[in-house]
């Protein structure tokens, strides 16, 4: 079951512009990933962050392992590239960390939700419980210095862009709204005009004529009665 689920997820994610995935030795349980930050407002915009994902044989009942190949200077990333993020922690509540079960891994999670959470974490660091204490302190006290280090990380990350791979841009991945032309809607519609009170039908006109004739007959009867009187 794990192989089938992972293969379906792989086929879906390879179509996404913000991630580049390769299977290690054609092993569906080992992925090489390139995370691409397409948000121009992000400190990490333009980076290609190479990482490894390893899946357990009982996936999705247990979480995958994730590790950056080039460690990033970030409060929630250990020096060896591992992440401190709730979604990758084993299912269930943890009284020691205070994490709720809803924040941790569950069989309902998927690779896509993990990767999106990681991208969100990059610009929304949790500094209250940092994996890299120095990075957490610098982010709070010397944000410009922190920004400079991150920008250097971004430039270095571009060395991992695979040969022949074309980096997507923000403009290329912007979803265009669907344009709909309603000019011929009523011409193509099968809706009858009389539903909207448009034109009177022949039947309606006949009813009006009958009502008019009835009124004339009543007036003639009244005149005859007056003459007899």
UniProtKB/TrEMBL annotation:
SUPFAM superfamilies: UBC-like. It holds the Pfam family UQ_con. Residues 181-229 have a biased composition (Acidic residues). Keywords: ATP-binding, Nucleotide-binding, Transferase, Ubl conjugation pathway. PROSITE patterns: UBC_1, UBC_2. CDD domains: UBCc_ScCDC34-like. Residues 161-229 are annotated as: Disordered. The keyword Nucleus does not apply. One of its GO terms (molecular function) is ATP binding. The active site is at 84 (glycyl thioester intermediate). Belongs to the ubiquitin-conjugating enzyme family. This is Ubiquitin-conjugating enzyme E2 2. It comes from Aspergillus coremiiformis. The lineage of its organism: Eukaryota, Fungi, Dikarya, Ascomycota, Pezizomycotina.
């Amino acid at each position: 079951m794990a192989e089938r689920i992972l293969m379906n997820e792989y086929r879906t994610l390879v179509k996404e512009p913000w991630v580049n995935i390769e299977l290690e030795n054609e092993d569906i349980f080992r992925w090489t990933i390139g995370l691409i930050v397409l948000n121009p407002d992000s400190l990490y915009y333009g980076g290609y962050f190479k990482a490894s994902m390893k899946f357990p044989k009982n996936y999705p009942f247990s979480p995958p392992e994730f590790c950056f190949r080039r460690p990033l200077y970030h409060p929630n990333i250990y020096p060896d590239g591992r992440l401190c993020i709730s979604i990758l922690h084993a299912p269930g509540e943890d009284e020691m960390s205070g994490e709720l079960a809803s924040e941790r891994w569950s069989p309902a999670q998927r690779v896509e939700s993990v990767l999106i959470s990681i991208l969100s974490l990059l610009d929304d660091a949790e500094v209250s419980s940092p994996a890299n204490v120095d990075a957490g302190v610098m982010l709070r006290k010397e944000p410009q210095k922190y920004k400079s280090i991150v920008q250097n990380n971004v430039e270095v990350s571009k060395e991992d862009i695979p040969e022949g791979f074309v980096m997507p841009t923000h403009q290329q991945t912007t979803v265009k709204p669907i344009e709909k032309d309603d000019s011929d809607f009523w011409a193509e519609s099968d809706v009858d005009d009389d539903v909207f009170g448009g034109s009177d039908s022949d039947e309606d006109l006949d009813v009006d004529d009958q009502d008019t004739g009835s009124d004339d007959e009543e007036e003639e009867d009244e005149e005859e009665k007056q003459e007899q009187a």
